[in-house]
Amino acid sequence: MEPPKASFEEMSQYHAPDFLEFLRTVNPYNAHEYEYLFGKFNIGEDCPVFGGVYDFCSMYTGGSIEAARAINAGICDIAINWSGGLHHAKKSEASGFCYINDIVIGIIELLKKHQRVLYIDIDIHHGDGVQEAFYWTDRVMTVSLHRFGNYFFPGTGDMHDMGKFCLI
User: Fold this and answer.
1) Where is the Histone deacetylase domain (predicted)?
2) What's the CA dihedral at 167, 80, 68, 163 to 10 degrees?
């Protein structure tokens, strides 16, 4: 499938409009005009400004939305977005080379049809952005299998940080 780009409205189902507007506007040529926002949106070494950052984000996020819609419609049982999985992005900030959290937006799409979603993250880094997004709901359970300790990024996801769900 060739999915459409995610719209501003679709991405704002989770992300703050001022953050999205920043990504849509900033580029390497005008970045100096927006440096005062770099701290607020966590833009820097791990998440630099580059040409087309907003389009890049809307493309991979569109893939996750379309995958979730295909599952919701019964077109497929399994859908893979090879360009997605940017699990560190937060509501109003980039993190760990992740600008838009396509996983969160895909899960929001799945929740339109399904009562509950189980999210299993098998990246070496803790899926902190997805966990943070759904921490206060019982409709999404996040399970992250990752390395922890010795100042390993992002520094979250200790085995004792199980939130509302406990493995016994």
Assistant:
1) 2-164
2) 20
The dihedrals phi and psi of 109, each to the nearest 5 degrees, come to -65, -45
Rounded CA gap, 68 and 96, in Å?
A: 24
- Side chain identity, residue 113: K
Compute the half-sphere exposure of residue 71: CA atoms within 13 Å on the CB side of its CA. Answer: 20
Rounded to the nearest 5 degrees, what angle is found at the Cα of 20, between the Cα atoms of 17 and 22? 110
pLDDT tens readout for residues 123-138: 888 999 999 999 999 9
Which active-site residues does the annotation give?
A: 88
3-state secondary structure of 93: strand
**pLDDT at residue 150 above 90?**
no
Which of 122, 99, 104 minimizes the C-alpha distance to 68?
104
Given the DSSP bridges, would you call strands 117-121 and 140-144 parallel, antiparallel or unpaired?
A: parallel
Contact 139, 116 (CB under 8 A): yes
